Amino acid sequence: MRSYVVRRLVATVIVFWAVLTLVFMFIQLTPGNIVLLFTGTDATPEQRAEVMARLGLDQPLLVQYWRYLVNVLQGDLGQSNLSLTPVTDLIADRAIPTLQLALSTAIVATLVAMVLGLIAAARYGGFLDGLIRVASVVAISIPNFWLGLLLLMVFGLYITDILPAGGWVHFSEDPGQNLAHLILPSFVLGLATIAIVTKTLRASMLDTLQRDYVTFARSMGLQERRVVGRVALPNAIIPTTTVIGLLVGFLVSGSVIVETVFTIPGVGQLMVDSFRKQDIPVAVGATLFTAVFFLVLNFAVDILYAYFNPKIRELYLST
Fold first, then answer.
1. Which helix (H) or strand (E) holds 75?
2. How far apart are CA 57 and CA 63, in angstroms?
C-alpha cells in the first residue's frame, strides 16, 4: 500500500510540474504588452526598459521559467499588476466562498445521487427507474450558465421573497443568509453532478446485483433492503467513488461561470475579472489554485479507491 501511495504521489508531482509549464507557456503567448500596463503609451524607452528589468522580462526565457518555478514552489505568486496586492492574499480572500460552494454542492449532490441511483437500480425497468433516467439525461443536457440566468431572472424579478437571486454573505456574518445564498448556485452547479453520479451508481448497482454473492445472500433469506444496502452497495460504490472525486474537482473549475452569474466573490470571479483586465499574475494564481485543488483531490480519491478496493490493496500490500 505504501508503494501505491508513493507512486500516486510521484505521478501527482509530475502532473503539477506539467501544469506549471503549460501555464508559463500560456503567459508567454498572452496577447498584449504587460509593460504598457505599467508605463502607458507615452513612456520613454528608458522607462520601459526599467519596468522590463524590474519584472525580469529582459532575462532569457529559460531564466524566467526557472525563476517562475522557484517562486511558485515557495508560495510566491507575485503581485497584482493593478492593485499591487500579493496574489496569495487575493486568492486567500476569495478561496472560502469557492470552497464552500464546491464542497457543499458536492456533499448534497452526492447524497441525492446516491438515493436516486439506489432507487433506480432497485426499481429497474419500472416507472421510477425510467423517470430518473430521463431526468438524468435532461439534467446533463442543460447548460449551467443558461440555468443560472433563468433562475436569476425568476427569483430576481418574479419571485423575490423566497431566495436571494445573487450576492454573497459570509457564514461568520449571518449563517442563515449564507446558506440561503448557497441554494441557487449549488443547484445550478450540482445538477449535472447529481445526474452523472446517479447514472454511474445505477449502472454499477445493476452489475453488482447480478453477482453470485448477491444471489447467495438472497438465497440465505436476507431481506432485499439488506441485500441492496449491506451486500451490493459497498461493492458498487467503488467505481462511483472515482467519478465523485473527479466531479468535485470539476465543481471548482465549473464555479467560474456560476460565481460570475450569481456575483459570488470567489476565485472563479477573480479569475474572470483578472483576465478581463489583463492582470496576468492574478489570473495565473487563480488558475494554479484550481489546478492544485483538483490534483490534491484526485490524489485523495486514488488513495480512497485503493483503500476500498481489496484487489488494489492486496496488490501493493507486500511492496
1. none
2. 10
